[in-house]
Amino acid sequence: MSSIRSALNHAATILATRHEGAMFESEILLAHVLKKTRTWLHTWPERELTTTQLTRFNALVERRLQGEPSAYITGEREFWSLPLEVTPDTLIPRPDTELLVELTLEHIPLDEPFNIADLGTGTGAIALALASERPRSHVFAVDFSEDALAVAARNRTRHTLNNVTLCCGDWLVPLANQTFQVIVSNPPYIREDDAHLNQGGLPFEPRSALVATDNGLDDIRKIVADSRARLVANGWLLIEHGYDQSIDVTQLFAQHGYHNVTAHHDLNGQPRVVSGQFRTIPSHN
Ligand code: GLN
What we know:
Blueprint: E1 2-3, H1 4-15, H2 22-34, H3 38-43, E2 48-49, H4 51-65, H5 70-74, E3 76-79, E4 82-85, H6 98-105, E5 115-119, H7 125-133, E6 138-143, H8 146-158, E7 164-168, E8 180-185, H9 207-210, H10 218-227, E9 231-240, H11 246-255, E10 259-265, E11 271-278
Parallel strand pairs: 5-6, 5-8, 6-7, 8-9
Antiparallel strand pairs: 1-2, 3-4, 9-11, 10-11
The chain binds glutamine.
Glutamine binds near residues 186, 188, 189 and 190.
């Protein structure tokens, strides 16, 4: 027999040899086995686990120890306070990407029906977060992967966000003839030869959602170029990028004629997002 507290302590000690945040990870896995929240675990630390529960928990801890991300083990990850289904067909939403949502919301008024595009939506994390905060706006969420879109569709239903339309295709291609006040994207941006791809949970994630050619910049370049024809006058483009790509991405925005180009840092102090506006009406000053 084992109490919740001692099972968690034991698992956290084992996981700490391999991963950061071992207690948090242990709690996520045990909460999943017991179908309870992490808060519930904290409320009832003395409760005894049944042998079946303990066996199932140990099996999940073992999978985590082998490197499988806990979001894939439990099939869930919270983003912007929305619990989202996650599968190996989708990237796991990162806390860093909440910065992109925060910055994007600054450009979407509460009381106006803006058209927004989220390119490479995956689980739908960004699109659903924006749609939940701006019910009058409509978000068009695009992904190349039909399997990812099926996950996004279930997440949309789960949170009854009817102001999201899911579209299958390559970046802006499925959105032909539409214009947007805001375009946002967390595209693949890791270099093909980046050693991080073999580390942590990354080997478990879809490579197509992580890796881009041309030093990780190929997809970002396409999005920066093609968004110009799809932004309304002075519409905003916001893109997440890798920790060492801020200068390159800022230059790409400038080369393509964007103005008010700004680099933004995440909570860890890493440059993470570039934003800029595109003026489609020529100015005569
Ligand atoms: N930020 C992720 C990572 O470094 C990558 C996400 C992406 O490629 N868009 O793990």
